[in-house]
Amino acid sequence: MSLSWNAFGWDKVSNIIYVDQPVGTGFSYSSDFRDIPSNEQGVSNDLYDFLQEFYKAHPGYIENEFYITGESYAGHYIPALASRVHQGNKNREGIQINLNGFSVGNGNTDPAIQYKAYTAFALENKLITKTDYVSINKMIPKCERGIELCATKGNNACVQAYEACRGIYGSIVDINGNINVYDIRKECKGEHCYDFSRMDTFLNLTSVREVLGVQTDFISCSKTVKFAMRTDRMKDLEVGIPELLEDGIKVLIYAGEYDLKCNWLGNSRWVHAMKWSGQKKFVGSPTVPFVVNGSKAGEMQSYGPLTFLKVHDAGHMVPMDQPKAALKMLTRWMQGKLATK
Hints:
Elements: H1 40-57, E1 66-71, H2 74-90, E2 99-105, H3 111-124, H4 130-137, H5 140-153, H6 156-175, H7 197-203, H8 206-212, H9 223-228, H10 241-246, E3 250-256, H11 264-273, H12 279-283, E4 288-292, E5 295-303, E6 306-311, H13 318-321, H14 323-335
Parallel strand pairs: 1-2, 2-3, 3-6
Antiparallel strand pairs: 4-5, 5-6
Helix pairs in contact: 1-2, 3-4, 3-5, 3-6, 3-11, 5-6
């Protein structure tokens, strides 16, 4: 129940703003439940408003390069926020934010492509047999149709799309018993496979909340917010990224190689399938090693403002599993020197 310095914290090379979002998670709250967003428009508008207020309060940071980073469901949040900031800049809304790039680690971004990659990833990692592969793949057409309807009809069609697709992932998990879906090398322990309960306890100490200036309880995972966002999870958030690439906004998609939940293969496939002016050259670019202190820590492809990086010996949470490599990745990416050894 104490703190220690992280030798590889990203504060070593940047100023960091942590935001508990959507409203209703972490320390973020509202007295009106209608303020809890149900889609990425609501999420990104809230975050954009927050950034405007932040820069009003701290104008000394306005000229700094601004980057947005996150993991997992941030594959939805971050492209949405990056697009909102970019549009705000284009429309001359409020304070101009010096957006240089965004990065997503093991993200959930394009469900149509990522759900289809589950069986290939599982087969490659010997989580299922070839017979299982053929059997589970029979669920894919129904999943695809569901996602198509979600895109056109929204609302309940998106809930139904999730029901149509989750059997693909669920079948793999059922075959493997108590596997940690965030790191297939490990056993799942607890509701979310990791025990972060001490973090929750620490942040809810009266003394900690007084120092932080908050009066509300810290909620790491909110079922209320999950329910409010239930129609969002099967939406495709890749669609807004090409415009950002065309305008020179840097994009880094990275993934630890042992995560099943938002695995590297599904992420690689949607990145390669994305339509933009540099697609052919990106797809045709060589895969090169990502080297940290003389050792290969991953492999990547890059062209123009887009980079995809598979990180070795890491699961869903790359900065936790490979902190040194993650800090090098962030530092070089912001400097435009990811290929540096």
